[in-house]
Amino acid sequence: MKQAWDSIWINANLATLIADRPGYGLIESGALGVHEDRIIWVGPTADLPEPARQSSVPRRDCAGRLVTPGLVDCHTHLVYAGNRAQEFEMRLKGASYEQIARSGGGINSTVRATRQATADELYLESLPRVEQLMRNGVTTVEIKSGYGLDSETELKMLRVAQRLRQELALNVKATFLGAHALPPEYEGRADEYIDLVCHEMLPRVREAGLADAVDAFCENIAFTPQQVERVFDAASDLGFDIKCHAEQLSNLQGAVLAARYGAISVDHLEYLAEADVPLLARAGTAAVLLPGAFYFLRESKRPPVDALRRHQVPMAVATDSNPGSSPVLSLTLMLNMACTLFALTAEEALAGVTREAAGALGLGEQLGTLEPGKRADLVEWDVRDPAELSYFIGDNPCRTVMYGGRIR
Ligand code: DI6
Ligand code: FE
Predict the structure, then answer these.
(1) Whether 53 and 177 share a structural domain
(2) Distance 25 CA to ligand 1 centre (A)
(3) Closest CA to 269 of 283, 280, 261, 260
(4) pLDDT in single tens digits along all 408 residues of the chain
(5) Is 1 within a domain?
């Protein structure tokens, strides 16, 4: 059968990130063929098959520059109104994140702003943040709800995520995070709020097809493991993928709970006990590391990276982009922080924003590596060595991005 080639990239330093190849899975002087929205061929430029050599096939000569899979930001809260620069100032003067949260600020201050915003306002406030991530090489982003905490506002947030998916070239995965914080009107009635999440919000989100996964914040300032378990029961019954904010500020064993539900990921994990790591490995649950939140909250306890590595738990890295704990708009900056703060290798960090991040979204079969059959999400960088992506701080060497076979 004659394979149609829509375009080819040649003479690239290809970091394929293919799992069973060592390190970055490099192919020096590599080439890559695209048909429609898929990669159809990857190999040395010298080995390009005959149909690809025809001059009618548009080709991009990468002149030795690095090409990676499109970056996947697998944990963000990008849709929100307002910001919390003033709380940042309060923290700089000595208040803690938890104190601010308990005194009605924190997540609930963003909830107030997000409830007040119209869907259009919310879209227009979120758009520049998403575009900033895209300029930095992100081709897939996960966006969580969780600043509505009432049915209408949660649905409004998820519709904004849907509109971003429709209007931008990038691939958007939406996650319902109704159990993010207790809204003020439910003060002292957390179990009743969880009823609302399980019996009203979740079915409506499912029915509207507005999210693929369900997340919950298992923490002293949020929900107990028992409450989170009720959310996961209801979510599993409706066929959602499970994710969990766990062990960020204390160890409530939320990660263990989520792994029991076959969670696709557990996220944060600074307080995860080493003894619990094998349970994640057995469940096939990915660990999503969020060095931006660790940095911005000036945490000192690090996630048990050695144990995760030893037990071969896939480690993803994401921005956690949100107004309170991680106002981060660069995933390549997170590469640097994952290395310097969490002691990942540069290879692990790059795998963490590509292959492992795709896995943490349940998209491991479709994207995250450069191999035939995967989505043609590609980034050409103005560097040669993949380690440069983790090494430079505050640079943006992103040169060309292909989203599903199309260059924007
Ligand atoms: N953990 C976080 O770091 C964010 N949410 C969560 O569950 C913080 C969200 C915020 O402060 O607005
Ligand atoms: Fe988060």
Answers:
(1) no
(2) 34
(3) 280
(4) 456 899 999 999 999 999 999 999 999 999 999 999 999 999 999 999 988 888 889 999 999 999 999 999 999 999 999 999 999 999 999 999 889 988 888 999 999 999 999 999 999 999 999 999 999 999 999 999 999 999 999 999 999 999 999 999 999 999 999 999 999 999 999 999 999 999 999 999 999 999 999 999 999 999 999 999 999 999 999 999 999 999 999 999 999 999 999 999 999 999 999 999 999 999 999 999 999 999 999 999 999 999 999 999 999 999 999 999 999 999 999 999 999 999 999 999 999 999 999 999 999 999 999 999 999 999 999 999 999 999 999 999 999 999 999 998
(5) no
First-last CA distance in the chain = 30
The Cα diameter of the chain in Å comes to 70
How many helices and strands, by DSSP H and E, does the chain display? 17, 16
Q: Work out the angle at residue 96's Cα, subtended by the Cα atoms of residues 94 and 98, and round it to the nearest 5 degrees.
A: 165
Q: Is the separation of the CB atoms in 160 and 79 below 8 Å?
A: yes
Residues 104 and 19 in one domain: no
- How many domains in the chain? 2
Atom index in ligand 1 nearest the CA of residue 80 equals 12
The Cα–Cα gap between 267 and 254 comes to: 10
The range of the structural domain enclosing residue 392 comes to 7-69+369-407
Taking alpha carbons only, the member of 71, 57, 37, 72 closest to residue 376 is: 37
Q: CA separation (Å) from 300 to 25, 287, 316, 341? A: 33, 19, 20, 10
- Give the position, in ligand 1's atom list, of the atom nearest the Cα of 324: 11
Q: Which amino acid is at 404?
A: G
Asked if residue 77 and residue 36 are part of one domain, the reply reads no
Based on the domain organization, do 139 and 165 belong to the same domain? yes
Report field, pTM of the whole predicted structure over 0.85: yes
CB 214 within 8 A of CB 237: no
Any residues with Cβ below 6 Å from ligand 1, and which?
77, 106-107, 110, 180, 217, 245, 248, 293, 320, 322-326
